[in-house]
UniProtKB/TrEMBL annotation:
GO terms assigned for molecular function: S-adenosylmethionine-dependent methyltransferase activity
GO biological process, one term: methylation
Methyltransferase type domain location: 25-117
UniProt organism field: Amycolatopsis lurida NRRL 2430
PANTHER family: METHYLTRANSFERASE, UBIQUINONE BIOSYNTHESIS O-METHYLTRANSFERASE, MITOCHONDRIAL
Lineage summary: Bacteria, Bacillati, Actinomycetota, Actinomycetes, Pseudonocardiales
SUPFAM superfamilies listed in its UniProt record: S-adenosyl-L-methionine-dependent methyltransferases (SSF53335)
Coiled coil: none
Gene3D superfamilies: Vaccinia Virus protein VP39
UniProtKB keywords: Methyltransferase, S-adenosyl-L-methionine, Transferase
Protein's name according to its UniProt entry: Methyltransferase
InterPro entries linked: Methyltransf_11, SAM-dependent_MTases_sf
Pfam families given in the database record: Methyltransf_11
Length: 160
């Protein structure tokens, strides 16, 4: 799996993890890259996505341990989440696809002191925002090519 611009933020998001192993919910997990990083810290991860093909892709990648990952197709809007069940909930570039009251539902699913980590997509509003957006597309395209070439040269994707 090639470059994904969300990867840049993974270390920052992982710095927000509460101490010790716990239970995490990764909402809109896509191909499971961040879920695997959570599991690598010892978290037990429930990873959900509305897309069946993405869940299949994520599940095929396995889990690096020591934590575990359970992937399943689910829509956070209609899913019944248990109250006070998760130490950490992540929504990476997914929350903008759901009604705002979903945030309340996610908050209620956190244990007291739990962390809701949101990586959002902001609407450009300043000249700098538009300039960054103009440059980001070609830079991301080049990064994808470089990462893909590196993976092909090394015989596969680096473990994540």
């Amino acid at each position: 799996m090639g470059f994904n611009h969300n990867d840049h933020y993974h270390p920052l998001l992982l710095d927000q993890l509460p101490p010790g192993p716990g239970v995490a919910l990764d909402v809109g997990c896509g191909g499971g890259r961040f879920a695997r990083r959570l599991a690598a810290t010892g978290m037990h991860v429930e990873a959900i996505d509305r897309s069946g093909p993405m869940i299949e892709l994520a599940g095929a990648a396995g889990s690096p341990g020591p934590g575990t990952i359970s992937y399943r197709q689910a829509d956070v809007v209609t899913e019944k989440l248990p109250e006070e069940a998760y130490d950490f909930i992540s929504c990476l570039a997914s929350l903008h696809h759901v009604p705002f009251d979903t945030v309340t539902k996610l908050r209620d699913a956190l244990v007291p002191g739990g962390v809701l980590a949101v990586l959002g997509l902001g609407r450009p509003s300043t000249f700098a925002d538009y300039a960054r957006a103009l440059v980001a597309s070609p830079v991301n395209a080049v990064a994808r090519v470089v990462v893909y070439a590196g993976e092909r040269h090394s015989g596969g994707a680096a473990p994540r």
